[in-house]
Amino acid sequence: MSHHILEVDRLRHVYPDGTVALSDVSIRITHGESVAVIGANGAGKSTLLAHLNGHLLPTSGSVRVGHLPVRRDTLAEIRRTVGMVFHDPDDQLFMPTVYEDVAFGPMNLGLSGEDLERCVTDALRQVDALHLAGKPPYHLSAGEKRRVAIATVLSMSPDILVMDEPGNGLDPYARRQLINLLKDFRHSKIVTSHDLDLVLDLCERTVVLSGGEVRADGPTREIFQDEALLRECRLEKPLSMQGCPICGA
Ligand SMILES: Nc1ncnc2c1ncn2[C@@H]1O[C@H](COP(=O)(O)OP(=O)(O)OP(=O)(O)O)[C@@H](O)[C@H]1O
Protein backbone atom coordinates (compact mmCIF):
# COMPACT_ATOMS: atom_id res chain seq x y z
CA MET A 1 0.00 0.00 0.00
CA SER A 2 3.05 2.32 -0.04
CA HIS A 3 1.77 3.86 -3.28
CA HIS A 4 -1.14 5.26 -1.24
CA ILE A 5 1.15 7.40 0.92
CA LEU A 6 1.25 11.04 -0.04
CA GLU A 7 4.23 13.09 1.02
CA VAL A 8 4.52 16.84 0.57
CA ASP A 9 7.99 18.01 1.57
CA ARG A 10 8.93 21.69 1.99
CA LEU A 11 6.65 22.65 -0.88
CA ARG A 12 6.87 26.20 -2.16
CA HIS A 13 4.83 27.59 -5.03
CA VAL A 14 5.34 30.99 -6.58
CA TYR A 15 2.95 31.96 -9.41
CA PRO A 16 4.43 33.64 -12.50
CA ASP A 17 3.29 37.08 -11.24
CA GLY A 18 5.42 36.63 -8.09
CA THR A 19 2.63 35.65 -5.67
CA VAL A 20 3.99 33.25 -3.08
CA ALA A 21 0.97 30.98 -2.64
CA LEU A 22 2.72 28.26 -0.60
CA SER A 23 5.92 28.47 1.40
CA ASP A 24 7.52 25.47 3.08
CA VAL A 25 4.46 23.19 3.36
CA SER A 26 5.12 19.66 4.63
CA ILE A 27 2.39 17.04 5.14
CA ARG A 28 2.39 13.24 5.17
CA ILE A 29 -0.86 11.41 4.54
CA THR A 30 -0.98 7.65 5.01
CA HIS A 31 -3.28 5.06 3.51
CA GLY A 32 -6.94 5.33 4.47
CA GLU A 33 -6.69 8.75 6.13
CA SER A 34 -9.42 11.30 5.60
CA VAL A 35 -7.87 14.75 5.74
CA ALA A 36 -9.39 18.23 5.39
CA VAL A 37 -7.36 21.23 4.27
CA ILE A 38 -9.05 24.37 5.55
CA GLY A 39 -8.22 28.06 5.62
CA ALA A 40 -9.54 31.49 4.71
CA ASN A 41 -9.86 32.71 1.12
CA GLY A 42 -6.43 32.85 -0.49
CA ALA A 43 -4.77 30.66 2.17
CA GLY A 44 -3.35 28.37 -0.52
CA LYS A 45 -5.74 25.37 -0.36
CA SER A 46 -6.42 25.02 -4.11
CA THR A 47 -2.76 25.61 -4.89
CA LEU A 48 -1.77 22.81 -2.52
CA LEU A 49 -4.35 20.37 -3.89
CA ALA A 50 -3.35 21.12 -7.48
CA HIS A 51 0.14 19.83 -6.64
CA LEU A 52 -1.15 16.46 -5.47
CA ASN A 53 -1.81 15.19 -9.00
CA GLY A 54 0.69 17.40 -10.81
CA HIS A 55 -1.77 19.97 -12.10
CA LEU A 56 0.77 22.43 -10.70
CA LEU A 57 4.45 21.58 -10.14
CA PRO A 58 6.51 22.87 -7.19
CA THR A 59 8.72 25.93 -7.45
CA SER A 60 10.82 24.07 -4.87
CA GLY A 61 10.30 21.14 -2.54
CA SER A 62 8.62 17.94 -3.62
CA VAL A 63 5.44 15.88 -3.71
CA ARG A 64 5.58 12.09 -3.75
CA VAL A 65 2.88 9.48 -4.17
CA GLY A 66 4.40 6.31 -2.73
CA HIS A 67 7.76 5.87 -4.41
CA LEU A 68 6.88 8.17 -7.33
CA PRO A 69 7.82 11.86 -7.30
CA VAL A 70 5.19 14.06 -8.96
CA ARG A 71 7.01 15.29 -12.07
CA ARG A 72 6.20 15.88 -15.70
CA ASP A 73 7.48 12.42 -16.67
CA THR A 74 5.43 10.59 -13.98
CA LEU A 75 2.13 12.41 -14.51
CA ALA A 76 0.32 9.59 -16.34
CA GLU A 77 0.99 7.14 -13.51
CA ILE A 78 0.30 9.72 -10.80
CA ARG A 79 -3.09 10.55 -12.32
CA ARG A 80 -4.09 6.88 -12.37
CA THR A 81 -3.52 6.81 -8.60
CA VAL A 82 -4.71 10.28 -7.56
CA GLY A 83 -8.19 11.31 -8.72
CA MET A 84 -8.81 15.04 -8.57
CA VAL A 85 -12.14 16.83 -8.41
CA PHE A 86 -11.40 20.42 -9.39
CA HIS A 87 -12.75 23.57 -7.79
CA ASP A 88 -14.66 24.44 -10.97
CA PRO A 89 -16.56 21.54 -12.62
CA ASP A 90 -16.25 23.34 -15.98
CA ASP A 91 -12.52 22.48 -15.85
CA GLN A 92 -13.49 18.81 -15.75
CA LEU A 93 -16.33 18.52 -18.26
CA PHE A 94 -15.54 19.01 -21.93
CA MET A 95 -17.29 16.24 -23.93
CA PRO A 96 -20.61 16.59 -25.81
CA THR A 97 -22.51 14.47 -23.28
CA VAL A 98 -22.30 13.55 -19.60
CA TYR A 99 -21.90 9.87 -20.55
CA GLU A 100 -18.89 10.61 -22.75
CA ASP A 101 -17.32 12.75 -20.05
CA VAL A 102 -17.55 9.96 -17.49
CA ALA A 103 -16.40 7.36 -20.07
CA PHE A 104 -13.38 9.41 -21.16
CA GLY A 105 -10.96 8.34 -18.40
CA PRO A 106 -11.84 4.61 -18.29
CA MET A 107 -11.68 4.46 -22.13
CA ASN A 108 -8.16 5.84 -21.96
CA LEU A 109 -7.33 3.06 -19.51
CA GLY A 110 -8.47 0.56 -22.15
CA LEU A 111 -12.02 -0.23 -21.02
CA SER A 112 -14.63 -0.86 -23.72
CA GLY A 113 -17.97 -2.56 -24.39
CA GLU A 114 -19.98 -3.80 -21.44
CA ASP A 115 -17.16 -3.17 -18.95
CA LEU A 116 -17.06 0.48 -19.93
CA GLU A 117 -20.83 0.79 -19.81
CA ARG A 118 -20.96 -0.80 -16.34
CA CYS A 119 -18.20 1.47 -15.07
CA VAL A 120 -19.89 4.67 -16.35
CA THR A 121 -23.32 3.61 -15.14
CA ASP A 122 -22.00 2.73 -11.67
CA ALA A 123 -20.19 6.06 -11.30
CA LEU A 124 -23.23 8.06 -12.41
CA ARG A 125 -25.52 6.05 -10.16
CA GLN A 126 -23.27 6.72 -7.14
CA VAL A 127 -23.82 10.45 -7.50
CA ASP A 128 -27.49 10.07 -8.48
CA ALA A 129 -26.89 11.41 -11.98
CA LEU A 130 -27.68 8.44 -14.23
CA HIS A 131 -30.71 10.26 -15.62
CA LEU A 132 -28.37 13.01 -16.90
CA ALA A 133 -26.23 10.65 -19.04
CA GLY A 134 -27.48 11.92 -22.42
CA LYS A 135 -27.34 15.63 -21.58
CA PRO A 136 -24.64 18.08 -22.66
CA PRO A 137 -22.74 19.17 -19.52
CA TYR A 138 -23.34 22.86 -20.31
CA HIS A 139 -27.10 22.30 -19.86
CA LEU A 140 -26.68 21.06 -16.28
CA SER A 141 -27.35 23.04 -13.11
CA ALA A 142 -24.33 23.92 -10.94
CA GLY A 143 -25.03 21.11 -8.45
CA GLU A 144 -25.62 18.57 -11.25
CA LYS A 145 -22.31 19.57 -12.86
CA ARG A 146 -20.55 19.07 -9.53
CA ARG A 147 -22.01 15.57 -9.18
CA VAL A 148 -21.03 14.61 -12.72
CA ALA A 149 -17.50 15.98 -12.17
CA ILE A 150 -17.25 13.69 -9.13
CA ALA A 151 -18.48 10.75 -11.28
CA THR A 152 -15.70 11.38 -13.85
CA VAL A 153 -13.20 10.77 -11.05
CA LEU A 154 -15.02 7.82 -9.39
CA SER A 155 -15.14 6.02 -12.77
CA MET A 156 -11.33 5.84 -12.68
CA SER A 157 -11.34 3.99 -9.30
CA PRO A 158 -8.54 6.14 -7.86
CA ASP A 159 -6.50 5.01 -4.83
CA ILE A 160 -6.40 8.56 -3.47
CA LEU A 161 -9.27 11.00 -3.87
CA VAL A 162 -8.55 14.73 -3.83
CA MET A 163 -11.52 17.08 -3.87
CA ASP A 164 -11.52 20.87 -3.96
CA GLU A 165 -14.79 22.12 -2.42
CA PRO A 166 -16.83 19.03 -3.38
CA GLY A 167 -19.95 20.26 -1.54
CA ASN A 168 -20.19 23.61 -3.33
CA GLY A 169 -23.56 24.19 -4.95
CA LEU A 170 -25.11 20.97 -3.68
CA ASP A 171 -28.58 21.02 -2.16
CA PRO A 172 -28.81 19.57 1.38
CA TYR A 173 -29.95 16.15 0.15
CA ALA A 174 -27.12 15.89 -2.42
CA ARG A 175 -24.64 17.16 0.20
CA ARG A 176 -25.68 14.40 2.60
CA GLN A 177 -25.43 11.83 -0.22
CA LEU A 178 -21.92 13.08 -1.00
CA ILE A 179 -20.85 12.79 2.64
CA ASN A 180 -22.16 9.20 2.77
CA LEU A 181 -20.48 8.36 -0.52
CA LEU A 182 -17.15 9.71 0.70
CA LYS A 183 -17.48 7.92 4.03
CA ASP A 184 -17.78 4.67 2.06
CA PHE A 185 -14.65 5.43 0.03
CA ARG A 186 -12.07 3.14 1.67
CA HIS A 187 -8.89 4.77 0.45
CA SER A 188 -7.27 8.09 1.36
CA LYS A 189 -9.18 11.29 0.73
CA ILE A 190 -8.12 14.89 0.94
CA VAL A 191 -10.79 17.54 0.85
CA THR A 192 -10.86 21.32 0.99
CA SER A 193 -14.06 22.95 2.12
CA HIS A 194 -15.49 26.07 3.70
CA ASP A 195 -18.33 23.79 4.90
CA LEU A 196 -16.80 23.06 8.29
CA ASP A 197 -19.67 20.81 9.35
CA LEU A 198 -18.88 18.61 6.34
CA VAL A 199 -15.24 18.61 7.44
CA LEU A 200 -16.20 17.62 10.99
CA ASP A 201 -18.44 14.85 9.71
CA LEU A 202 -15.99 13.44 7.18
CA CYS A 203 -12.39 14.02 8.19
CA GLU A 204 -10.67 12.79 11.33
CA ARG A 205 -7.65 14.99 10.59
CA THR A 206 -7.48 18.66 9.59
CA VAL A 207 -4.65 20.78 8.24
CA VAL A 208 -5.08 24.54 8.67
CA LEU A 209 -3.39 26.74 6.08
CA SER A 210 -2.86 30.45 6.53
CA GLY A 211 -0.84 32.70 4.26
CA GLY A 212 0.54 29.67 2.41
CA GLU A 213 1.84 27.98 5.57
CA VAL A 214 0.62 25.10 7.72
CA ARG A 215 -0.62 26.69 10.96
CA ALA A 216 -1.99 23.50 12.53
CA ASP A 217 -2.33 19.81 11.72
CA GLY A 218 -4.21 17.48 14.05
CA PRO A 219 -7.46 15.79 15.03
CA THR A 220 -10.36 17.78 13.54
CA ARG A 221 -12.33 18.19 16.76
CA GLU A 222 -9.26 19.51 18.60
CA ILE A 223 -8.58 22.02 15.83
CA PHE A 224 -12.16 23.30 16.05
CA GLN A 225 -11.89 23.65 19.82
CA ASP A 226 -8.87 25.97 19.53
CA GLU A 227 -10.66 29.32 19.48
CA ALA A 228 -7.45 31.42 19.28
CA LEU A 229 -6.24 29.44 16.26
CA LEU A 230 -9.62 29.78 14.53
CA ARG A 231 -9.67 33.53 15.15
CA GLU A 232 -6.10 34.02 13.90
CA CYS A 233 -6.81 32.03 10.75
CA ARG A 234 -10.17 33.72 10.05
CA LEU A 235 -12.13 30.53 10.63
CA GLU A 236 -15.24 29.74 12.64
CA LYS A 237 -16.40 26.70 14.53
CA PRO A 238 -18.72 24.37 12.62
CA LEU A 239 -22.37 25.25 13.35
CA SER A 240 -22.85 21.90 15.08
CA MET A 241 -20.18 22.92 17.66
CA GLN A 242 -21.53 26.42 18.26
CA GLY A 243 -24.32 25.32 20.59
CA CYS A 244 -27.95 26.33 20.46
CA PRO A 245 -28.32 30.15 20.55
CA ILE A 246 -31.74 29.85 22.22
CA CYS A 247 -31.30 27.21 24.90
CA GLY A 248 -27.47 27.51 25.20
CA ALA A 249 -27.01 23.75 24.95
N1 LIG B 1 -2.85 31.83 -11.34
C1 LIG B 1 -2.50 32.61 -10.31
N2 LIG B 1 -1.64 33.64 -10.49
C2 LIG B 1 -1.27 34.43 -9.45
N3 LIG B 1 -1.72 34.28 -8.18
C3 LIG B 1 -2.59 33.25 -7.97
C4 LIG B 1 -3.03 32.39 -9.00
N4 LIG B 1 -3.89 31.49 -8.47
C5 LIG B 1 -3.98 31.78 -7.16
N5 LIG B 1 -3.20 32.85 -6.85
C6 LIG B 1 -2.99 33.46 -5.52
O1 LIG B 1 -2.42 32.45 -4.68
C7 LIG B 1 -2.95 32.56 -3.35
C8 LIG B 1 -3.58 31.25 -2.94
O2 LIG B 1 -4.70 31.01 -3.77
P1 LIG B 1 -5.57 29.67 -3.66
O3 LIG B 1 -6.54 29.69 -4.80
O4 LIG B 1 -4.67 28.52 -3.50
O5 LIG B 1 -6.33 29.94 -2.28
P2 LIG B 1 -7.54 29.16 -1.60
O6 LIG B 1 -7.14 28.91 -0.19
O7 LIG B 1 -7.90 27.96 -2.41
O8 LIG B 1 -8.69 30.26 -1.62
P3 LIG B 1 -10.32 30.15 -1.73
O9 LIG B 1 -10.82 29.73 -0.39
O10 LIG B 1 -10.71 31.57 -2.02
O11 LIG B 1 -10.66 29.19 -2.84
C9 LIG B 1 -3.93 33.74 -3.37
O12 LIG B 1 -3.23 34.87 -2.91
C10 LIG B 1 -4.27 33.91 -4.85
O13 LIG B 1 -4.55 35.25 -5.16
From TrEMBL:
The keyword Transport applies. Belongs to the ABC transporter superfamily. It is found in: Cell membrane. InterPro entries: AAA+_ATPase, ABC_transporter-like_ATP-bd, ABC_transporter-like_CS, ABC_transpr_CbiO/EcfA_su, ECF_ABC_transporter_ATP-bd, P-loop_NTPase. One of its GO terms (cellular component) is ATP-binding cassette (ABC) transporter complex. Keywords: ATP-binding, Cell membrane, Membrane, Nucleotide-binding, Translocase, Transport. Pfam families: ABC_tran (PF00005). PROSITE patterns: ABC_TRANSPORTER_1, ABC_TRANSPORTER_2. This is ATPase component NikO of energizing module of nickel ECF transporter. Residues 6-236 form the ABC transporter domain. It comes from the Bacteria. One of its GO terms (molecular function) is ATPase-coupled transmembrane transporter activity. Gene3D superfamilies: P-loop containing nucleotide triphosphate hydrolases (3.40.50.300). The lineage of its organism: Bacteria, Pseudomonadati, Thermodesulfobacteriota, Desulfuromonadia, Geobacterales. CDD domains: ABC_cobalt_CbiO_domain1 (cd03225).
